[in-house]
Design a protein that fits this description.
Blueprint lengths: L1 E7 L2 E8 L2 E8 L21 E10 L23 E3 L9 E4 L4 E7 L8 E5 L3 H7 L2 E8 L1
Parallel strand pairs: 4-8, 5-7
Antiparallel strand pairs: 1-2, 2-3, 4-9, 5-8, 6-7, 6-9
């Protein structure tokens, strides 16, 4: 015995095909029941950033202890306005928004001096990195 369902507006017909016999049995339409609970899309918790005050400095690929090749710990090439070095408690790939600068950086690098509550932003120009200095800034870390 073979069964096929045909959807017809307001009615669903079920065809039952049997040897030497064809019968059509109407099946009443079942309306979709609206529940008051929101439908889950697999994400029950909306991610929130970790906000904290961090000591923020700048570095270049030519600083002491750097190879000068501009390859980060994640294997990416450094990019001004994008690359940041963060301590190991911040995962590689995390995004860090700094409201005072109005920019979002990506954690692509680590650093020997970048521990605890420090963040290092990559800059192309050493003079600009030195001019940036040491700042205490609020940051938002999005993992």
């Amino acid at each position: 015995m073979y069964r096929k369902a045909l959807i017809v507006p307001l009615t669903i017909l079920l065809l039952v095909i049997q040897p030497r016999n064809l019968s059509i049995e109407p099946v009443p339409h079942q309306p979709v029941v609206n529940t008051s609970k929101p439908v889950s899309r697999g994400m029950d918790i909306i991610p929130q950033p970790v906000k904290r005050i961090m000591t923020v400095t700048a570095y270049t690929a030519k600083d002491k202890g750097m190879s000068g090749k501009g390859i980060t710990a994640s294997g990416d090439h450094v990019q001004e306005g994008v690359t940041s070095a963060a301590p190991s408690w911040v995962p590689l790939g995390a995004k860090i928004y700094i409201p005072a600068l109005g920019k979002t950086f990506v954690v692509q690098d680590r650093g020997g001096a970048i521990k605890g509550n420090r963040l290092d932003l990559y800059m192309e120009n050493r003079k600009e990195a030195l001019k940036f200095g040491v700042r205490k800034l609020e940051v938002e870390i999005w993992e």
